Amino acid sequence: MPAPRSTLRRSLAAVTALPLLAVALTACGYGSEAKQDDTRANATVGGKKLSTDTVKIGYFPNLTHATALVGIQEGIIAKELGSTTVKPSTFSAGPSEIEALNAGSIDIGFIGPSPAINGFTKSKGKGLRIIGGSASGGVKLVVNPKKIKTLDDLKGKKIATPQLGNTQDVAFLNWISEKGWKVDANSGKGDVSVVRTDNKVTPDAYRSGSIDGAWVPEPTASKLVAQGAKELLDESTLWPDNKFVITNIIVSQKFLAEHKDVVEAVLRGTVATNAWINANPDKAKASANTALKELSGKELPAEILDPAWKSVQFIDDPLAATLDAEAEHAVKAGLLEQPDLTGIYDLKPLNTILKAAGKPEVADAGLGVK
Q: Quick check: pTM over 0.70?
């Protein structure tokens, strides 16, 4: 995978993205959200009134979304919001979360780069903004060691990715291309068989022998390793500084325009959460696992949780250059027409918060609002 471009285009041809995902999975909790109340509550933080009494936040019950899991579980985000209430919703796929954001069922979301790119381009730049980072890494290629011993052995094998056009699918297709192998992106057929398999059923598919490995996020990768698979590649090793965006924080442009104070409070909460996670990794890991148990009914065993947690970095930087590179990979694979990503970022609120905390500001790679 090549490094992100050092100089990014400021003006790209504005086009509509092709659908990145074949099927939008039904989201847990989506459809039950109440219509946003037009009245303004007397919510306060530090004696100042906030502009709404509720903020609806969407995220996945995944370790790569631990900023949301821990921030809500520990009340760190709620502390910054005062009496403004957090109303959480969980999702199982990016398209469902984007749909909820567009419908006003959520205001702020934690999401991967591919659905964020798709949501922005399909709305012609009017639907969302990326306002911060959350996590980097946490994606691995794991394989059946009896069938695959080296990376070259992947040729002719069946490797799972979570969904057509999702972040890991694009990354794997790009890696295949860099190897000089050919695969039809849409069908998944070619020198490697790319099998789109929901993360929930990937362990069963591996156990049954219907796949030989998987390019997947945590904790799915560690679940497969617990079943006897071997880690063959950590995707972070393919990126400069071993960092690439896996989770962004997005907001609907309407909510940002009407409730900037609430957005800033949530961002203060996420920055504080990431700081707490990094200062207290064991406590944060346990907190995330408790949240997962409450959401899914069961916690992750230590043999899965521990290695999965170590592979994810929780950071405020959205790593904008890596998102732009991921968009280029999707274009190269034929899953995305050349997008105009100018304006996908608004990092001004985050940088104000980081500066006030004495932390370095983050860059938008030339793709911020003008």
A: yes
